[in-house]
């Protein structure tokens, strides 16, 4: 018996289309921030990206259009947006470069755990709520930091709140990463390697 609510192999779904559109927005954001320095348009793009990030998951549930492709596209889009935004903001000196290095470094370390997971037949582990909270904070922080690049009172206020969200987001991002690494360690300790050609788990 198959689970009616399990992710399907469908590709052409509304949530997947929204995730693909978010991916196309990544190079556009970098062009707006670094090349033409159109901060207002870049800010609007981040707002639209945040809305579609919530909307694709919401539609996947209410339309019953959850898919394996969507489960990959959504976190990939989140990671690429985080990477693009920290590079763009660091390039414009809105944030220090150590922030731009710290966030991708966490993802790089976690990607290094994937071959270990595959020895146990897994391609990934379930996303923890701390990771979702971290992404939520960071996706709020970056538009505020972008808005905080001016000299007005509004820019100062945006900068303060932006850094508050950023500090929480960075801390939760690494906490979630360490928790994920601990889960991998536990899995390796309590399970046996899967024989070659023995298939894998989702």
Question: Would you write up a description of this structure?
Answer:
There is one protein chain. This protein is mostly helical and about 200 residues long. It has two domains: about 1-95; about 95-195, no CATH class. Helix content is about 75%, strand content about 0%. The protein has seven helices and no strands. The protein has helices at about 15-35, 40-60, 70-90, 95-110, 115-120, 130-145, 155-190. It is globular.
Task: Kindly summarize this structure in a few lines.
This is CDP-alcohol phosphatidyltransferase family protein. The protein has about 200 residues and is mainly alpha-helical.
Oligomeric status of the shown chains? single chain
- What's the helix count? 7
Helix amount, in percent?
A: over 70%
What form results from the Cα inertia axes?
globular
Overall number of domains:
2
User: Strand fraction band?
Assistant: under 5%
Main sheet characteristics? none
Mean pLDDT: 82
Order of helices and strands: HHHHHHH
Report low-confidence residues grouped into runs of 5 or more. Answer: none
Number of strands: 0
What value does the Rg take, in angstroms? 19 Å
What is the first-to-last residue Cα distance? 17 Å
Structural class: mainly alpha
Give me some keywords for this one.
202 residues, mainly alpha, globular, phospholipid metabolism, transmembrane helix, phospholipid biosynthesis, transmembrane
What's the layout of helices and strands?
Layout (H helix, E strand, L loop, with lengths): L13 H22 L3 H24 L5 H24 L5 H15 L2 H5 L10 H19 L5 H38 L12
């Amino acid at each position: 018996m198959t689970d009616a609510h399990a992710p399907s192999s469908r590709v052409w779904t509304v949530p997947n289309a929204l995730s693909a559109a978010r991916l196309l927005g990544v190079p556009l954001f970098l062009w707006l921030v670094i090349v033409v320095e159109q901060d207002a348009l870049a800010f609007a793009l981040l707002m639209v990206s945040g809305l579609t990030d919530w909307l694709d998951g919401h539609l996947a549930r209410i339309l019953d259009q959850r898919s394996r492709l969507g489960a990959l596209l959504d976190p990939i889009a989140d990671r690429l947006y985080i990477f693009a935004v920290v590079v763009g903001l660091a390039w414009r000196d809105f944030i220090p470069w150590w922030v731009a290095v710290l966030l991708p470094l966490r993802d790089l370390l976690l990607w290094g755990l994937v071959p270990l997971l595959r020895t146990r037949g897994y391609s990934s582990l379930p996303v923890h709520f701390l990771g979702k909270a971290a992404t939520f904070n960071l996706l709020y922080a970056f538009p505020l930091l972008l808005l905080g690049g001016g000299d007005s009172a509004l820019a100062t206020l945006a900068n303060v709140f932006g850094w508050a969200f950023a500090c929480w987001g960075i801390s939760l991002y690494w906490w979630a990463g360490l928790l994920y690494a601990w889960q991998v360690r536990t899995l390796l300790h309590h399970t046996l390697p899967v024989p070659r050609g023995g298939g894998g788990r989702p």
